[in-house]
């Protein structure tokens, strides 16, 4: 037997080889479950050793942080010629070596895979321990000596027993390996899940991994439940005492904790001879001189100093400097950007040009900058123009190199739909059965659990064992990580090689790499990421600014737009907000006339309040009543007043809820932070429930009424993951205001800028153009003789109008057409033949003809196309003239108007001709229907009939059973409200009509006007007769 | 029109289009109550989107239509039963339909998935024009409640387009056909979708508009395919048709000339029939695995006996032996007047590879009587005597539960070969574990823990040991929550 010191039999056990579910489809338990079970069983140490991965270790660290359980960090590798190798880090350097190995192994393969060979283990792992499960005799003979030399006193044969038929043979084999190689043996149980009940799920994961039904892969399943964490007694029964003792000794040699990792900032940001603190101070005051040309007021200076002190105290200078560097680059390149997040709303960020929010407004809004008490990393997201964000990303890679910068990961987890599908398939259900079940689950129904819904709708399901397993295992699988994906834009930048801090692997997007941790992991370890995000509205705004500069000779930017312009707010109060950032959706537009925003802060509230969180928490109506003075604003205490005063006693922002928990229920900063995390993912884990008692008792103890306490808790639950932080809302409000201001003062530039930035936002080009025309802006059709690729502003009798560009034409390539437009003679092209001779491919010419932009060149749509079709072959110059068949230009009948309209929509997505509804009305197809304009003259409760193209069907997750349908006619939009019973009664028109006629009752509340539908008629047949077949509606997105 | 339609066409064509063929066929097999259920067939359009292909009348009445997205349809009509559309199944149905009509029409071309083209010039004379032919077909299809459209035309394509457009028209006047054709929208032209789109874009939105353009101009713009299409439509060009041939079958019926009241008496005439069968098979180099013998009675429905063979045979002697064995089990209740032998599903004679018993039987010349495989023959005889299900072989399967590590399957000529995992398992596994007591045993090795099978409600949780009893016999015993059991013997 192995010579190891005698240890008492009662020594607490260690687990040296545990796979969590971050060894995707191999491990059957969450890291936190393994940690909790190990604690329960009295383990002294537990190693998380996911296969070539560190993705699960931070989760385990978080769970073990406040306990006596020692967490060991390691990783398992399947090495073709060796067998299974487990590496454990003994210290920080060993951890770095391990991360580098994983990075190297992952870099050799495509996303999600890795490749290692024996040579990888022979050098560069001096601070790691190696546990080896040799493949066979030959592996020991060939490599035993090599490994033993590469890992002197650091290499063991890892014996694991699972009560299988070959136990005895295996035991003898390990003894022989030992004699053969001299390597010591230790007991290292292979753990795949934390407790025996997970065997079914583990079997199922095996089936999913093999993409076959469970009954087809029985040979691959483990024969029993002995891959769980065993109790100390079970372990003693299973292994020789000295092998157990050898394992326990291993734990003593590992002395590394993830808390040792600290972020080392890129040093090159600070010039030599200066400290980061000094340099940040210098930049801030240089910026302040620009931002405040008249000098700093005492108040601002005091705030600035306070912030700088706080930054120095928490050592966040580099973080601000990193972002300052990025925005500086963006400024040089003329890329519009805006910072947001809790830390962004500071005077420092304003001075560093990270944000454009005036600190006068900040002062009113935020008492919170970075909280020392809560010790959470600073949060700054920077949005860049969506068309140019890639330039920023390339800059980061260039400046810091790929070795030092990578994206954070996003863990893609099983959700109900994917879990049910995978579990179902493994249990042998057919695709159709599963689709059938999924159709019967209404995820918007928050009152009935999905299991209960299924049991109601498919009564026979739980009558069989298979059906019960389907429900049970689906529930277990939900929330299991499935694979790593890339975060939308969170970069981690290190001072040295990033791979020493955390393994880096390939993303599915070429040339992108991701680290193995997600944003929660980074937050847990207080590592900092820089969020580089893309925002379409910034692109649009920059284009608007450029147009205004060109046509009005006025230079505006986000910081210089006049604030609190009454005309802008008047416009918004009329719900005239199509195209305006964030407040353009149907629900937001409904709220505008009710909330009547009159100040910037009203916009901040407006953006946050029309969200599922506040709506589900029933905060909207109290807020509106109080704002209208219909309800008294009361505060149970001065502390609560301080938190809720600015929102009239109703919690609307996430920060307020957290703050309430602190001031009213006595939560500590740390507890409040846990609450915030629980809110962020309560849907998947139900963690929130554990706070209920603490919240309510805390508040009761501080003298608050139980009813008040309950209401707060309910509001927190409603908030869930949808709560909107005030700081984000404020940044969005800034862009909402800026875009509204442009719409109000430079409408032509506003629409033109938006149209040139599509796709983005809520509305299509068609809807934007219609809105522009309703605002009396002349819009000219695309025309080969006048249009550019982009839409442009043109002067028409002293007024600015919009000439649509050729980019509108579907499938047309800018690369091909732009060089040809550059060669356009001053008096225009002379013929289609000329276009072809300039190098325009026949297919592109046909697209131009189909889009009717050749009208000035070769006549109406049919004629132009007939001609373009004759020019399709690449013709030899010799025949070119012969083949221009002048006599073949038989005159074709021009298309009828509705044909042209339909073709416009088909080729460009919009039409400047008459609206189809105008045509139908003229033909008498809509007798008795009021237009959108006529509707405004109707009185409350009047019975009316309206008709229009369905442009949007929306069923908010909020108000139960109601659907909003937007109808469009030649004069504008009509909002229709459909209650569930009506929807059911007229199911077909409700779901499928493209032209909908509605008989109903007018409802007027202030400036809001709806038609409450009573009867629905599908009139799509009339459209079909016009030849219009395309569906333009955005349904239930 | 630029070119007159060919007069006195050499051929006349009739096209049958059954737009809902598969679902109609499936409905016909359902009870009246089931037919009232709305049902539809759906198929995938890629990217997770599915749409309806066919719907039964109940579904159509409820507002569902072909082409509708599956999601929309099932929201509209939650009780809608959806099945996968299976093209191969529809093709089979089309084959069957062709076979039925083959009794009246000799020249049938299959146009999968839902069409049949008939060349009917000679038939028009036979049945006295389209009305007579129509009547004949209606009679023939009495048992086929399938919604169908019949259209005649002066070219295969013209008939097809009219039928597919749902225009039931049976007339021999080419002018009428031509007029109906010209009214068809271009979307019903049968041209590829991309081509149709381009024609629409220049305002050619009907077949008539297309025919009115000079062929040269069209050819220059839309290519040769359109020129060819027009020729085919006009009947100027006749693409070769692949006519349907019914599958090969043997059927012979023999008048016994006197009443026969027992099977042995039938043997002689049967022998004759089987000899004819052998000749039939020999000419075609075919063999068979089963046949149907029918005895016809005076006033009773015929007695029908299906004889199956475990291996392919073709010689009269083999056929007779096997039939004899099987027929002995049947009582001939009524005297027989006639006897028939029918055989379908014929297969080519190929040497079948792979066998349970070694290769030495393949020594003989292929096709000679001596190559008949004794085991196969034996099994055929056993099955003939005892019924096919009575002859079974054990097959090893992988399952950790020992009692499920093998299964019995009916004997098939070619067995799938699976290898069992090599585990220490006793030679003799008891059919049922027997209760035992631990004190009778001396444990030698163990435990092997088996805890598996949760998925089929027969989960086992056992610790197995190899142990010696008082007589030093090596047994396989296990402990479960119910106590100790003996499960097998090693010696």
Q: How would you describe what is shown here?
A:
The complex is a heterodimer of chains A (1037) and B (491). With 1037 residues, chain A is of the alpha/beta class. In chain A, the strands form four sheets. Chain A has an eight-stranded mixed β-sheet with strand order 7-6-5-4-3-2-1-8. In chain A, strands 9-10-15-12-11-14-13 form a seven-stranded mixed β-sheet, with helices on both faces. Chain A has a five-stranded mixed β-barrel with strand order 19-20-21-23-22, surrounded by four helices. In chain A, helix 5 links the parallel strand 6 (155-159) and strand 7. In chain A, helix 1 packs parallel to helix 2 (57-64) and helix 37 packs antiparallel against helix 39 (861-869). The radius of gyration of chain A is 34 Å and the shape is globular. In chain B, a hairpin with a 6-residue loop joins strand 9 and strand 10 (303-313). Chain B has 491 residues and is α+β, with helices and mostly antiparallel strands. Chain B is built from 16 helices and 19 strands. In chain B, helix 12 crosses helix 13 (224-234) and helix 15 (316-327) runs parallel beside helix 16 (374-386). The longest helix of chain B has 22 residues, at 263-284. In chain B, the strands form five sheets. In chain B, strands 8, 9, 10, 11 and 12 form a five-stranded antiparallel β-sheet that branches. A five-stranded antiparallel β-sheet of chain B has the order 15-19-18-17-16, with no helix packed on it. In chain B, strands 5-6-1-7 form a four-stranded antiparallel β-sheet, with helices on both faces. At the A-B interface, helix 6, helix 16, helix 18, helix 39 and helix 45 of A face helix 4, strand 4, helix 12 and strand 16 of B.
């Amino acid at each position: 037997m192995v010579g190891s010191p005698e240890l008492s039999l009662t020594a607490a056990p260690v687990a040296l080889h545990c796979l969590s579910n971050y060894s995707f489809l191999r491990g059957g338990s969450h890291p936190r479950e393994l940690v909790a079970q190990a604690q329960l069983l009295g383990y002294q140490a537990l190693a998380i050793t996911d296969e070539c991965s560190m993705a699960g270790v931070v989760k385990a660290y978080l769970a073990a942080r406040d306990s006596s359980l020692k967490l060991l960090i390691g990783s398992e590798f399947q090495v073709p010629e060796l067998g299974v190798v487990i590496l454990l880090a003994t210290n920080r350097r060993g951890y770095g070596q391990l991360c580098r190995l994983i990075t190297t192994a992952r870099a050799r393969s495509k996303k999600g895979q890795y490749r290692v060979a024996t040579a990888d283990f022979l050098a560069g792992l001096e601070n790691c321990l190696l546990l080896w499960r040799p493949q066979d005799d030959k592996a020991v003979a060939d490599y035993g000596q090599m490994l033993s030399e590469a890992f002197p006193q650091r290499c063991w044969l890892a014996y694991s027993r699972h009560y299988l038929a070959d136990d005895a043979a295996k035991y003898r084999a390990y003894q022989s390996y030992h004699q053969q190689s001299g390597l010591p043996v230790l007991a290292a149980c292979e753990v795949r899940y934390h407790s025996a009940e997970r065997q079914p799920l583990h079997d199922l994961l095996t089936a999913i991994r093999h993409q076959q039904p469970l009954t087809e892969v029985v040979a691959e399943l483990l024969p029993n439940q002995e891959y769980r964490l065993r109790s100390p007694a079970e372990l003693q029964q299973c292994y020789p005492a000295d092998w157990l003792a050898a394992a326990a000794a291993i734990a003593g040699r590992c002395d590394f904790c993830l808390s040792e990792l600290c972020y080392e900032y890129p040093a090159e940001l600070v010039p030599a001879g200066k400290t980061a603190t000094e340099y940040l101070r210098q930049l801030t005051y240089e910026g302040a001189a620009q931002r405040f040309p008249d000098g700093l007021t005492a108040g601002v200076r005091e705030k600035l100093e306070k912030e700088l002190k706080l930054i120095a105290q928490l050592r966040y200078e580099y973080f601000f400097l990193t972002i300052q560097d990025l925005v500086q680059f963006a400024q040089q390149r003329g890329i519009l950007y805006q910072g947001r997040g809790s830390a962004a709303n500071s005077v420092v960020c304003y001075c560093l040009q990270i944000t454009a929010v005036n600190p006068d407004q900040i002062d009113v809004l935020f008492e919170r900058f970075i909280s020392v008490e809560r010790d959470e990393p600073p949060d700054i997201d920077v949005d860049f123009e969506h068309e140019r964000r890639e330039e920023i990303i390339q800059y980061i890679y260039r400046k810091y190199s790929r070795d030092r910068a990578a994206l954070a990961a996003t863990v893609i987890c099983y959700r109900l739909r994917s879990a049910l599908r995978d579990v179902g398939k493994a249990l042998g259900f057919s695709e159709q059965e599963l689709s059938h079940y999924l159709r019967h689950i209404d995820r918007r129904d928050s009152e009935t659990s999905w299991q209960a819904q299924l049991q109601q709708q498919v009564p026979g399901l739980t009558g069989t064992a298979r059906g019960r397993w389907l429900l049970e295992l689906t529930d277990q699988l939900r929330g299991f990580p499935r694979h790593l994906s890339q975060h939308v834009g969170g970069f981690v930048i290190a001072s040295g090689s990033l791979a020493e801090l955390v393994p880096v692997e390939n993303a599915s997007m070429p040339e992108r790499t991701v680290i193995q941790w997600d944003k929660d992991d980074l937050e847990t370890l207080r590592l900092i990421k820089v969020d580089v995000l893309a925002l379409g509205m910034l692109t649009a705004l920059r284009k608007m600014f450029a147009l205004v500069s060109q046509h009005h000779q006025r230079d505006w930017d986000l910081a210089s737009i006049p604030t609190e312009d009454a005309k802008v707010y008047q416009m918004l109060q009329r719900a005239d907000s199509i195209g305006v950032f964030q407040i353009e959706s149907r629900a937001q537009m409904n709220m505008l006339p009710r909330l009547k925003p009159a100040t910037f802060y009203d916009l901040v509230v407006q953006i946050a309040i029309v969200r599922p969180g506040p709506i589900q928490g029933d905060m909207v109506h109290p807020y509106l009543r109080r704002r209208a003075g219909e309800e008294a604003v009361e505060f149970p205490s001065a502390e609560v007043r301080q938190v809720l005063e600015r929102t009239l006693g109703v919690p609307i922002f996430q920060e307020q809820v957290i703050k309430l928990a602190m001031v009213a229920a006595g939560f500590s900063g740390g507890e409040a932070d846990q609450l915030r995390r629980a809110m962020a993912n309560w849907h998947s884990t139900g963690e929130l429930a554990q706070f209920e008692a603490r919240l309510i008792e805390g508040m009761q103890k501080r003298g608050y009424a139980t009813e008040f306490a309950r209401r707060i808790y309910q509001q927190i639950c409603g908030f869930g993951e949808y709560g909107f932080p005030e700081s984000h809302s404020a940044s969005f409000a800034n862009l909402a205001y800026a875009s509204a201001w442009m719409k109000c003062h430079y409408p032509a530039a506003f629409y033109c800028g938006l149209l040139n930035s599509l796709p983005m936002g809520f509305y299509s080009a068609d809807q934007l153009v219609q809105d522009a025309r309703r605002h009396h802006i002349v819009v000219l059709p695309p025309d080969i003789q006048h249009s550019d690729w982009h839409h442009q502003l043109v002067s028409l009798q002293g007024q600015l109008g919009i000439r649509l560009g050729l980019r509108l034409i579907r499938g047309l390539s800018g690369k091909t057409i732009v060089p040809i437009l550059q060669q356009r003679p001053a008096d225009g092209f002379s013929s289609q033949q000329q276009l072809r001779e300039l190098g325009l491919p026949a297919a592109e010419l046909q697209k131009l003809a189909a889009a009717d932009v050749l009208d000035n060149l070769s006549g109406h749509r049919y004629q132009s196309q007939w001609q373009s079709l004759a020019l399709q072959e690449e013709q030899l110059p010799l025949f070119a003239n012969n083949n221009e068949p002048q006599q073949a230009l038989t005159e074709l009948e021009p298309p009828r108007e509705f044909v042209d309209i339909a073709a416009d929509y088909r080729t460009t997505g919009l039409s400047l001709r008459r609206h189809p509804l105008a045509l139908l009305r003229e033909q008498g197809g809509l007798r008795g229907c009021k237009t959108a304009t006529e509707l405004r003259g109707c009185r409350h409760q009047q019975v009316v009939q309206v008709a229009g193209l369905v442009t949007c069907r929306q069923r908010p997750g909020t108000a139960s059973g109601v659907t909003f349908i937007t109808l469009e006619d030649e004069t504008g939009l009509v909002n229709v409200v459909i209650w569930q019973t009506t929807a059911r009664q007229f199911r077909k028109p409700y779901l499928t009509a493209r032209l909908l006629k509605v008989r109903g009752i007018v409802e007027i509340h202030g400036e809001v006007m709806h038609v409450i539908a009573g009867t629905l008629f599908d009139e799509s047949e009339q459209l079909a007769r016009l030849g219009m077949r395309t569906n333009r509606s955005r349904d239930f997105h | 029109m630029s070119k007159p339609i060919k007069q006195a066409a050499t051929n006349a064509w009739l096209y049958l289009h059954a737009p809902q063929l598969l679902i109609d066929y499936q409905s016909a097999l359902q009870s009246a109550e089931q037919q009232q259920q709305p049902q539809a067939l759906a198929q995938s359009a890629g990217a997770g989107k599915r749409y309806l292909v066919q719907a039964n009348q109940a579904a159509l009445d409820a507002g569902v239509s072909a082409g509708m997205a599956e999601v929309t349809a099932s929201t509209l009509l939650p009780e809608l039963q959806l099945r996968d559309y299976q093209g191969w199944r529809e093709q089979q149905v089309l084959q069957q339909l062709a076979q039925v009509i083959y009794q009246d029409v000799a020249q049938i071309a299959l146009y999968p998935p839902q069409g049949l083209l008939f060349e009917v010039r000679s038939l028009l004379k036979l049945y006295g024009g389209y009305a007579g032919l129509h009547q004949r077909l209606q009679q023939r299809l009495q048992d086929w409640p399938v919604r169908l459209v019949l259209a005649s035309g002066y070219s295969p394509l013209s008939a097809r387009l009219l039928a597919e457009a749902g225009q039931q028209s049976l007339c021999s006047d080419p002018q009428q056909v031509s007029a109906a054709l010209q009214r068809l929208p271009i979307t019903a032209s049968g041209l590829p979708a991309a081509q149709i789109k381009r024609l629409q874009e220049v305002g050619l939105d009907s077949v008539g508009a297309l025919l009115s353009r000079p062929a040269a101009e069209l050819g220059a713009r839309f290519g040769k395919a359109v020129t060819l299409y027009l020729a085919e439509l006009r009947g100027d060009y006749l693409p070769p048709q692949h006519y349907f041939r019914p599958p090969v079958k043997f059927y012979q019926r023999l008048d016994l000339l006197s009443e026969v009241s027992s099977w042995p008496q039938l043997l002689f005439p049967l022998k004759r029939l089987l000899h004819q069968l052998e000749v039939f098979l020999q000419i075609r180099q075919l063999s068979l695995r089963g046949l149907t013998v029918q005895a016809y009675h005076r006033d009773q429905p015929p007695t029908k006996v299906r004889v199956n063979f475990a291996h392919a045979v073709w010689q009269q002697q083999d056929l007779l032996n096997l039939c004899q064995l099987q027929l002995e089990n049947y009582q001939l209740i009524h005297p027989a007047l006639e006897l028939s032998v029918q055989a379908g599903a014929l297969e080519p004679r190929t040497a079948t590879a792979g066998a349970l018993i070694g290769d030495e039987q393949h020594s003989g010349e292929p096709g000679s009587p001596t190559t008949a495989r004794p085991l196969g023959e034996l099994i055929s005889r056993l099955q003939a005597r005892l019924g096919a299900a009575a002859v079974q072989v054990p097959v090893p399967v992988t399952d950790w539960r020992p009692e499920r590590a093998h299964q019995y399957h009916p004997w098939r000529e070619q067995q799938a070969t699976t290898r069992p995992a090599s585990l220490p398992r006793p030679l003799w596994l008891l059919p049922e574990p027997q209760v035992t007591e631990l004190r009778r045993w001396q444990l030698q090795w163990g435990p092997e823990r088996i805890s598996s099978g949760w998925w089929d409600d027969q989960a086992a949780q056992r610790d197995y040991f190899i142990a010696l009893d008082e007589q030093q016999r090596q047994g396989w015993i296990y402990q479960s929550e119910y106590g100790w059991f003996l499960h097998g013997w090693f010696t």
